[in-house]
Amino acid sequence: MIDKIKKGLNKRKVKLFLVFLLCSSLAWFISNLGEQYTNNATFDIYYGSTPDSLLLNGVSKRNIKVRLRASGFQFLMFSFKNKTVEVDLSQLEKKGPKYFVSPTTYRSQIENQLSKFIRVEDMDRDTLFFNFQKLYKKKVPVLPKVTIDLEQNYLMDNNYTLLPDSITVMGPKTDIDTLTGITTQTLVLPHTTNDISKKLKLILPPNLKNTKYSDHSVTLSAKIFKFSEKVFKVPVEVVNVPEGVGIRTFPEIVSVLCRGRLSAIKELAVSDFVVTADYSSLKDKNENVLDLKLTKKPDSVNVVQLRENKVEFILKRQ
Questions:
Q1: Does residue 30 lie in a domain region?
Q2: pTM, rounded to two decimals
């Protein structure tokens, strides 16, 4: 019984010793974290804010060595962070054909990205040099691959629109010179009766890796409506008839078919149309047939068609 008690006390002493050892080690570790240290580090460089008119092809350095001074705690936190710094190329300098960023400029940028509790004691002093390729701009049309089939008795108000109908491309001259237009994705709309508003992706050339595009999609819009139609009887006017000659056409009145919105159709009159036949267009004076042309028509309707394209005539001496 006494032996068991002694064994229990010994175990408690060991546990207490380990707890005190752990606490003292932790206190020593925390105490040391407050001390200042100097250490070396290597940063990977990300080059940002490249000028729009230039394409970055090569750089003289991809990483940079620095000597830092900070507390142990700061170094502990620093070890968990991404060791990448950005060099802002909006502060790019040029001398002759060479582009560069001076050590003073990029050191200031890097210091501003570090914690205020970390001091840069030393850093590479190499000037950063860059190889750029000039970029050019060009405006190209959007080429729609769109098929719209209207339901019977429906019309499209004018034509569909694309917004934008052209885009700006920027890239190496050899690349953008190959572009004459950018096509849209294919769209087929059968039996259409309602207004259209569709976003279409642009099919961008996959081989032009260094080319940028102002837009990656366009919006297709169209107004669709159910039409009314009406036939107008319009007299034929023959023009350029020689003096002293009379002419009579058969028929003297022709039909003109109009299709559009009912409100527009109701406002039309025969005087809104002029159908002419040009006597001077005859190549053979022995012929007695003239072509008809609709020389005046209203803009308020969508479809205006002549039912007859030709008329016969006879001449009468006056």
A1: no
A2: 0.64
